[in-house]
Amino acid sequence: MAEIEFYTEQFRVMDCDCDMNHRLTPGAFLRMAQQISTDQCESIGMNDEFYRQNHAVFLLAKLALKMERTPRGGEVLTLVTMPEQCKRAVYKRVTEARDEKGERVALLDSRWVLVDTDTRRILRRPPEAFEIGRFAEEVPFTLDVTIPKPAETEPSGKVTATYSRCDTNGHMNNTRYADAAADALPLDVLTDGEVKSMVISYHNELPAGQSAELVRGRTEDGGWYVAGQRADGRPCFEAVLTVE
């Protein structure tokens, strides 16, 4: 069996990834996490050609993000990504970020499914090529991925899968839903506070050029709930943010 390796990479917090308070946005952090995940997969041969040959691709189903401290522009973060073997059709991947003092600033628990690119169905039994020996049997970090529902919601605009928000799958990139959820909140909520945690559940992809109507509401514990619904009536995503 191949030796299990967790993958490490450094990222500089760019000014263009920061908000008006010079703090790293949740969506920008998710893009760092997405990049290190891609780099780790490519390092063991799981590149675009590999996915094409096996007619399968990983899609994100849920994630939970916990921010211990919001990094600021100019900081250098060390990310470590830790993928787990498939369990009940789900691949868990945990990504941790530490600052230059070695202190953890963020923890991301993401849950992925393997989808057949021809049928668009979840593969309960992965192809032999996806039996990845260098993914760990167990990753000892777990965050709560449940999303509490508010008693009431109100309209909060819409989000469109525009050119700059889409990826090579032809739909809105999963990190852009974090941007959409943050943008759906009243502006002063995030200018006066910071996102301490975020949970996103991805229901149905938003294809390029299509839009989703957004609603928002407050949960019993004071969190902000945001959800999107496509024009065909199908739910697109749900998210809940804790802002302090």
UniProtKB/TrEMBL annotation:
<feature type="domain" description="Acyl-ACP thioesterase N-terminal hotdog">
    <location>
        <begin position="7"/>
        <end position="130"/>
    </location>
</feature>
<dbReference type="Pfam" id="PF01643">
    <property type="entry name" value="Acyl-ACP_TE"/>
</dbReference>
<feature type="domain" description="Acyl-ACP thioesterase-like C-terminal">
    <location>
        <begin position="159"/>
        <end position="214"/>
    </location>
</feature>
<dbReference type="GO" id="GO:0006633">
    <property type="term" value="P:fatty acid biosynthetic process"/>
</dbReference>
<protein>
    <submittedName>
        <fullName>Acyl-ACP thioesterase</fullName>
    </submittedName>
</protein>
<dbReference type="InterPro" id="IPR049427">
    <property type="entry name" value="Acyl-ACP_TE_C"/>
</dbReference>
<dbReference type="InterPro" id="IPR002864">
    <property type="entry name" value="Acyl-ACP_thioesterase_NHD"/>
</dbReference>
<dbReference type="GO" id="GO:0016790">
    <property type="term" value="F:thiolester hydrolase activity"/>
</dbReference>
<dbReference type="Pfam" id="PF20791">
    <property type="entry name" value="Acyl-ACP_TE_C"/>
</dbReference>
<dbReference type="InterPro" id="IPR029069">
    <property type="entry name" value="HotDog_dom_sf"/>
</dbReference>
